[in-house]
């Protein structure tokens, strides 16, 4: 693996994937460089969580085409634990409850698997909790069991802070967080981009996440494809106008928005049946 700065990129190209017999992703292209924040916004069912699961290699999600590389490493060839070891972290939309196992044991196991020292992990997690104004008791109690949605999200943030991945996919990390917790979590992610060069793919419905966490690009995913790309103003427009308006405009413009390419040169496909056979 070469390691010049130019080679450091999390690159998704022409990614197509299916769940069961249903094609969900129809050619996703995205590039995230160290320190960058890319927001992915899209209506319910557009394939955002599918994208996150495919990137992390969740069983049941079948990649049918395209490539994903992390600093030159072919991620799709690797099992999930090796993707994590290569530097990818996924904060789940619905974090898993793990009875009998604490957050600190999970983080210690992840560190061990990555060949990193495990001493000091408790203190590190407590420091991370303090940074986001979270109670340190969550570090030692059974992970996520009986916690509120927002508490689970902050547990994901603790893991992200302690594991220091190169790139993080955050699947609706803002959902369930109250205003103060949201501000603390967004600030912590933003600091990781600035202090550690973390590259972020932030999946969200709401532009409020992007008030503290500053996106370099905003991508709109619909019907399994990126249909529009822009800056923060695009997120603000979505908040005001909803997806329908922005997507209709993208479709009405000549071909695809500037900078958006699809491997098969389809027209913007949000009006198509997302479950239609793309090869038919
Ligand atoms: P989003 O996160 O954008 O709301 P998802 O990626 O969760 O959307 O879902 C995209 C589509 O794929 C939805 O129509 C959903 O019903 C379908 N889907 C997701 N996971 C499965 C699954 N395991 N089995 C069948 N269909 C699924
Ligand atoms: Mg989702």
Topology:
Blueprint: E1 10-19, E2 22-32, E3 37-41, H1 48-56, E4 61-70, E5 73-74, H2 80-86, E6 88-91, E7 98-102, H3 103-113, H4 121-131, E8 142-143, H5 149-163, E9 167-171, H6 179-195, E10 199-203, E11 217-222, E12 225-230, H7 232-252
Helix pairs in contact: 3-5, 4-5, 5-6
The structure holds adenosine-5'-diphosphate and magnesium ion (MG).
What does this entry look like structurally?
The protein has helices at 48-56, 80-86, 103-113, 121-131, 149-163, 179-195, 232-252; strands spanning 10-19, 22-32, 37-41, 61-70, 73-74, 88-91, 98-102, 142-143, 167-171, 199-203, 217-222, 225-230. Strand 9 (167-171), helix 6 (179-195) and strand 10 form a beta-alpha-beta unit. The strands form three sheets. It has a six-stranded mixed sheet, sandwiched between helices. Helix 3 (103-113) packs parallel to helix 5 (149-163), helix 4 (121-131) crosses helix 5 (149-163) and helix 5 packs parallel to helix 6 (179-195). The chain is built from seven helices and twelve strands. The protein is 32% helix and 25% strand. The chain is of the alpha/beta class. It has a single domain (5-252), classed as 3-Layer(aba) Sandwich (Rossmann fold), CATH 3.40.50.300. Magnesium ion (MG) binds at residues 48-49, 93.
